[in-house]
Amino acid sequence: MKYLLDTSSFLWFVNDDRRISTAARELIEDSGIEIQLSVVSIWEIAIKSTLGRGLALPRPFAQFIDVVLENYDFKVLQIHISHLKQIAVMPLIHRDPFDRLLIAQSQVENIPVISSAAAFDSYEIQRVW
Hints:
The protein is an alpha/beta fold. The protein has helices at 7-14, 22-29, 39-51, 61-71, 81-89, 97-109, and strands spanning 2-5, 34-38, 75-77, 113-114, 127-128.
C-alpha cells in the first residue's frame, strides 16, 4: 500500500511534533507501507522557509531536505503532466495551489493522503488522519 504525505504531516513527523495523529505516525513508521513525499511539498517548504512565512526549519533548507531524504525511506513523487491536467478539471473548492496539486496527485495516482486538512474531503480522495 502507498500513501502520500501532505506538507504539514511530513513536517510534523520529521520534527516529532505532537500535532501529528497517532494513526498517521503509525502508518508512516510501518515498514510495509510506501510513503511518498511529493516534490510539491519540498517546493512549498523551500518557498515558505525562504520567505519567512511562519515556517522555521531546524537547519537551512538544503541541509534539512538532504538529511530527511537520507534518514527516511520516503519515495519522492515527481510532478507529471497528468497531475497538471487533473488540476485543470478540479472544482475550485480549495484554492491553495500546493494543496490542489497534492490532491490532483492523489487522484491520478489513486493513493490516499495523510493529512489533517479537512478541506481535502471536498474532493474525491481518501484522506487518512
